[in-house]
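Researcher: For the annotation table, I need structure tokens for Transcriptional regulator GcvA. Please keep the output clean. Sequence:
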Amino acid sequence: MKRVLPPLNALRAFEAAGRLGSFKEAAAELHVTHGAVSQQVRLLEEWLGASLFERHHRRVTLTAAAKAYLEEIGPLFEQLSQATARYGVPETLSRTLSVNAPATFTLRWLVPRLATFRAEHPDVEVKVETSNGPLESLKESYDIVIRGGPDTFYGYSMRPFLSEERLPVCSPALLQRVPLRSPGDLRQHTLLHTSSLPRLWPDWLASTQLAALRPAATLTFDHFYLTLQAAIDGIGIAMGPTALVSDDLAAGRLVAPFDGPRLRSRSYCTYIADEKSGDELVVQFRSWLEREGMCS
């Protein structure tokens, strides 16, 4: 006889949610989003033609039939795990670590350094998504969120790992064409702006007593990484965050024509949900970020 089996991914989501009593905790255990668990449970309910959970404001409870169903299938998952381990498949399978970070930070600081973390943890898949939105607006659950700070959010632990300042940077070729001997020489140059950070140049010029300075031209980009790329390409001079241009300064792709003044900026911080604070891999990634931050 042909076996009648429900969708196995949906069954796995139901087993975890029922055993833990929480869609959120099931999502953390399975390394998927809360929405994915909810969708799989709904799929199983449609397949069975019966409700499995009673949904309340902030919690779910098993129906009587679902509780009986879970009591029968729960031991089967444990048997499957033991059998798999017994026949040669390692108990510790590869994990996915989900990270959400600002786009420019990801492109210019995180990605160039990820190879070192992967070398230390070859069995870990790091999934990086970029966003500049506030932490409380994120619709998915991530293992680690990187944002400016320090800020305080209920239900999250925060630790800074990378500080930075901002100062003018440009390509060496640009200085060869039009030298910069003092801040006043900026009148002969194109100043590069980012639309989301409109006060960088005005604040820096004001700190040099040149608030009324008018440059030869201005050019504005909608993303900060485009502004920095324009500086590398010799198009103009950008206000560079020291943390994100340190590699370019070391490689000679950019130079800082003035040592100061430097505008103070917020630090980069890790924000970890309280329920993930005991996850060994999450803690290891946070520690790795802090080590890399000390070297930058």
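Researcher: And a one-line annotation?
Model: The longest strand covers residues 95-101.
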